[in-house]
C-alpha cells in the first residue's frame, strides 16, 4: 500500500512539475523594421562652391504589424561626399535636409515626430579636397507615403575660411 501511495505521489509531482513549469510560447513580434531604397539610390549635384554626392540612400521605418501604422519617426540614411570646388578654403559647419513633395512644397513633420534633419561636420576643406560622412536624419511620416516625396533639398552650411596661411622657408645653417 505504501508503494502505491509513494508511486501516486511521485507521478502527481512529476505531472504538476511538467505542466506547471512549462514555458509559455513567446508571442509573435508586434513590430516590423522595413528598409526601402530611394530611387535613384545615388545623386550628384554641383553647387556654387561644392559638389555633393549622395549614395546608398535608404529609408527605414518601424511599423506595427497588425495596424500597419508607423511606430517611430522614419530615418533616412546614406553616404555623403562633399568636394570643395571653390578657389579658397571653406569651413563646413553642417548639412541640413528638407523634404519636398511633387509640387515642390515642403513636407513638414507632424506633432510628436522626432525632428533630426541636420548633421554637424566642422571641417575646413581646401580647394578640390573631399570630405566624406554618413547621412543619418529623420524624415516626416508623410514623406514615406506612396509618391509623396518628390525631392530632397540639401543645404550645406559653411563659412569661407577667414584666415589664409602662407608658409615661407628661409635657408639657414648653424656654423
Tags for this entry?
175 residues; mainly beta; Immunoglobulin-like; five-stranded antiparallel sheet; 1 helix; elongated
Can you give a write-up of this model?
- With 175 residues, this protein is mostly beta strands.
- The chain has one domain (31-160): Immunoglobulin-like.
- The protein has one helix at residues 2-20, and strands at residues 31-37, 43-46, 50-64, 75-84, 90-100, 118-125, 130-138, 151-160.
- Strands 1, 2, 3, 4 and 7 form a 5-stranded antiparallel sheet that branches. Strands 6-5-8 form a 3-stranded antiparallel sheet, with no helix packed on it.
- It is elongated and about 110 Å long.
Kindly identify the CATH topology: Immunoglobulin-like
- The general outline is elongated
Number of domains: 1
Count of distinct strands:
8
Return the average pLDDT rounded to an integer: 82
Q: At the first level of CATH, what is the class?
A: Mainly Beta
In whole angstroms, the N-to-C terminal distance is 116 Å
What Rg do the Cα atoms give?
A: 30 Å
N-to-C series of helices and strands: HEEEEEEEE
Alpha plus pi helix count = 1
Roughly what fraction of the amino acids lie in strands?
35-45%
Give the helix/strand class. mainly beta
Ranges where pLDDT stays below 50 over 5 or more residues in a row are: none
The major β-sheet equals: 5 strands, antiparallel
- Helix residue percentage: 10-25%
State the CATH architecture: Sandwich
Amino acid at each position: 500500500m505504501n508503494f502505491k501511495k509513494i508511486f501516486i505521489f511521485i507521478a502527481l509531482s512529476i505531472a504538476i512539475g511538467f505542466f506547471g513549469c512549462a514555458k509559455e510560447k513567446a508571442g509573435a513580434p508586434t513590430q516590423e523594421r522595413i528598409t526601402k531604397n530611394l530611387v535613384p539610390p545615388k545623386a550628384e549635384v554641383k553647387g556654387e562652391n561644392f559638389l555633393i554626392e549622395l549614395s546608398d540612400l535608404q529609408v527605414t521605418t518601424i511599423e506595427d504589424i497588425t495596424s500597419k501604422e508607423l511606430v517611430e519617426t522614419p530615418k533616412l540614411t546614406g553616404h555623403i561626399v562633399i568636394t570643395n570646388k571653390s578657389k579658397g578654403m571653406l569651413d563646413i559647419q553642417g548639412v541640413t535636409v528638407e523634404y519636398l513633395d511633387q509640387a515642390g512644397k515642403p513636407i513638414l513633420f507632424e506633432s510628436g515626430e522626432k525632428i533630426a534633419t541636420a548633421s554637424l561636420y566642422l571641417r575646413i576643406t581646401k580647394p578640390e579636397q573631399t570630405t566624406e560622412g554618413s547621412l543619418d536624419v529623420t524624415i516626416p511620416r508623410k514623406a514615406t507615403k506612396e509618391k509623396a516625396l518628390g525631392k530632397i533639398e540639401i543645404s550645406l552650411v559653411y563659412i569661407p575660411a577667414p584666415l589664409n596661411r602662407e608658409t615661407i622657408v628661409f635657408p639657414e645653417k648653424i656654423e
